[in-house]
Design goal:
Layout (H helix, E strand, L loop, with lengths): L1 H23 L4 H11 L3 H14 L4 H12 L1 H37 L3 H19 L1 H9 L6 H9 L5 H25 L8 H24 L14
Helix pairs in contact: 1-5, 2-3, 2-4, 3-4, 3-5, 4-5, 4-9, 5-6, 5-8, 5-9, 6-7, 7-9, 7-10, 9-10
Amino acid sequence: MKRPAVRFALLVAGVLAAAALSAFALPDRAGITAAVADAGPLGPVLAVLGSTLLIMAMFPRTALAFVSGLLFGLGPGMAYVLAGALLGASTAFLIGRLLGREYVDTVLAARPDGWRGRVAARLARIDGWLGRNGILGVITVRFLPVSNYGLVSYAFGTSAARYRDFLIGSGIGAVPSTFGYAALGAAVFGEDAVPTALAVLTGLGLLSLVVTMGLHRVRKPGTRWSPDSVKTG
């Protein structure tokens, strides 16, 4: 128990440090724009790698999409941010899996008495559901406007969600908002950009549909969870 707890503490400390970095030390939109402009032909590479690192530091993906659309246009800007977001999310997921999953397994299996036991039992059912319905679970959370892309990635790494399901769900869940904000950025200079209304309606429509489906599935009774019933690979 001691080593998993230490690794989990390191994960929490690292996430808090990344959040502080994102809030106080990372470049603003003007700084990102200047860095990409100075990179010249390597601008797209810098955009992808920069998005990867900024996502891991929990910088808002929507802000990255806006700036990328502003600099590269709708199509390329959206592609660069999506690539960087998935790379950053994958790395954050693997860090969460390495440092946090064993501790979560131990806590959920302990089942103490009283209210803590009831909370652990409910969390275990949710965890087991994510192991069986990872894609839907990830998409549902990704479409929530309050979820931070990087923070959620670390959290999913500690859950029973499989990496393949996480990656697919993250890709699908990132498309509407990335599309919308890249379109907003492209519309600043590009007259042929997709209308903002279409981007917003598309994102809101998909958000409503998937969240409704996800909540409906969560309410359905599932099988009883046990530590051996979910593969965490």
